[in-house]
Amino acid sequence: MREAKISRRTAETDIRIELKLDGTGSSTISTGIGFFDHMLTAFSKHSGFDLAVDAKGDLIVDDHHLIEDTGIVLGQAIATALENKAGIARFGEARIPMDEAMASVALDIGGRSYLVLEAAFVSPKVGEFSTQMVRHFFESIVQHAKINMHASVYGDNDHHKIEALFKAFAYALKRAAVIEGQGIKSTKGTL
């Protein structure tokens, strides 16, 4: 079973995530940030991964610690659920439109962390979610899941741009994580 249960508790946050890669896209999400809940629910639905997130943090300060630590734990859960990565497609990509917005994501579950993100937001927040945290969230995921990800998004509405980006990430990761063989897709023999 390709699944993981990861917890992280600090003086600033208490995060618990359960992830099942071969799921149905069902989710139970509670972060205290409505728009972030919406994005994680969309990620689960469109990836087909079952996802449970129970995240509490010092939201009285701001949303930074909670979003960052959720990205860290989700990245760790992805890495754990992928096990030794035997048989996975390894590479995945997706282009997702949402009204006037268009997001593109290409990624490699190759064991090296790197994020290239071309995204500009006009509003400082969508709901209680700081738009500057989009980059930081994805940086935290790729670092801890050891994923190389190139992403871009354009459009006029920040809600649409962020949602298209989360959905494109979901589809790209689903395609990269699918089992399509038995061996490791690397000339090194390991990922």
Automatic annotation (TrEMBL):
GO terms for molecular function: imidazoleglycerol-phosphate dehydratase activity. The keyword Transport does not apply. Transmembrane segments: none annotated. Its EC number is 4.2.1.19. Keywords: Amino-acid biosynthesis, Cytoplasm, Histidine biosynthesis, Lyase. Pathway: Amino-acid biosynthesis; L-histidine biosynthesis; L-histidine from 5-phospho-alpha-D-ribose 1-diphosphate: step 6/9. It catalyses: D-erythro-1-(imidazol-4-yl)glycerol 3-phosphate = 3-(imidazol-4-yl)-2-oxopropyl phosphate + H2O. One of its GO terms (biological process) is L-histidine biosynthetic process. It is an enzyme of class 4 (lyase). The keyword Lyase applies. It holds the Pfam family IGPD. It is found in: Cytoplasm. GO terms for cellular component: cytoplasm. Belongs to the imidazoleglycerol-phosphate dehydratase family. PANTHER family: IMIDAZOLEGLYCEROL-PHOSPHATE DEHYDRATASE, IMIDAZOLEGLYCEROL-PHOSPHATE DEHYDRATASE HIS7. This is Imidazoleglycerol-phosphate dehydratase. The gene is hisB.
